[in-house]
Amino acid sequence: MFDFKILKKSKKSKARTGIIKTPHGEIKTPAFIPVATLGVIKGGLDFTDHEKSRVQCQITNTFHFLDLNYADQVKKAGGLHKFFHFPGPIFTDSGGFQIFSLGKGAEFGFGKTGSIFPGDDNDRKKTSGNKKLVKKITENGVLFLSPRDGRRIYLTPHLSCETQIKLGADFIYLLDVCGSPFDDKKTAKTEMDLSHQWFEKFMEVKIPKNQRVFGIIQGGIYRELREESTRFVNDLPVFGIAIGGALGKKKSDMYKIIGWINKKIDFSRPHHLLGMGDLDILENIIKLGIDLFDCALPTRIARHATAMSARGYLNIKKNIFRNNFKSIEKNCGCFACKNYSLAQINFLFKAKEQLAGRLLTIHNLYFLENQLEKIRKKIEAGKF
RNA sequence: GGACCCAUGGUGUAGCCCGGUUAACACAUCUCCCUGUCACGGAGAAGAUCAGGGGUUCAAAUCCCCUUGGGUCCG
Question: What is the predicted pLDDT for the residue at A51?
Answer without folding.
Answer: 85
